[in-house]
Amino acid sequence: MTREPAGAAVLRPDLTDAVLDAVLQEFAEVGYGRLSMQRVATRAGVGKSALYRRWPGKEEMVADAMARLGVPEDPPPDTGSLRGDLRALGEDMRAWLTTPAVRPVTSDLLAELARSPGLAEVFRSALAGPRRRRARAVLDAAVRRGEVPDDEILLDLVVDVLGSAPYWRMTVLGEEVDDGYLDRLAGLLAQGLAV
Amino acid sequence: MTREPAGAAVLRPDLTDAVLDAVLQEFAEVGYGRLSMQRVATRAGVGKSALYRRWPGKEEMVADAMARLGVPEDPPPDTGSLRGDLRALGEDMRAWLTTPAVRPVTSDLLAELARSPGLAEVFRSALAGPRRRRARAVLDAAVRRGEVPDDEILLDLVVDVLGSAPYWRMTVLGEEVDDGYLDRLAGLLAQGLAV
What we know:
Two copies of one chain form a homodimer. By secondary structure, chain A is mostly helical. Helices cover 68% and strands 0% of the residues of chain A.
């Protein structure tokens, strides 16, 4: 009698992908509060045991889905000017926020951070973290060129603004982030940062 | 036999206040999705009829509670410099975001805007609107003094940043907005805006 090998080898990656897609769809439809392992299993067409073999519970499963929402893979932009680099970062942010998988879940996800420390931890390390580090690399290069002051608080603030301003405009005000807006954002920050 | 007069006169304001307090407490505790007229009535110690005499339904009731979350009553700051005025606006925003009634509901409220057009309308007109106009008055005065360009998109962006940066830092990153942060925010925007 043969036994299936134990451990990661038995977890079919295509099934994991299907489940994580189902998590994102459920999240967008019903929000984090009403999302359940059962609903996700039903939507993905698998048994609940397939979920529990992968994650101990809902928080870990959702965290995993979040972490797949798009970590930037390109190196930080290097256009030849701080303004151009900031413009490129703003454009990346807009592209990410308008991704079909991302747009409907952003606000619910942010609302959930206050209630779910585990999810907040994953959001900050796996989702916001890589984006923030990429933006920060652009600013650190400008510090090395002597174009902006080496002021930790100020640089962190600029990283905040690059993410929060486009989010705010789209989600809170319900307006589009057009090229004119991104031009002003890059111009405002580049001039505001200059030594 | 006497009848109670119909209309607004029968609505005891102290009862209205108690119900609106209960709405904010429920909102903070369970979020918008699970908030119900029944739960609010129970918490406020009144019958559901007392609620329906005041509001046709949940959305209108919550909107009314939101609208009471604090409209700025002071005139726009006039400290003698754009930087000082922006600093004062940032400080107001921090004070508002950290109000005990406001802090626990902000993120759920923002998440709900995408699902409830009626609530979004009230949020934008009654809650964000007065704050945005107050910030905009500061910028328009600086335009008249010839200190900043008369650029609608840029001025709107700066109004966005004054609200979104402190919100982002507190709620999304879970960090405090200290005086150093507000100093940088005012400095970044004042220098970034200068003609």
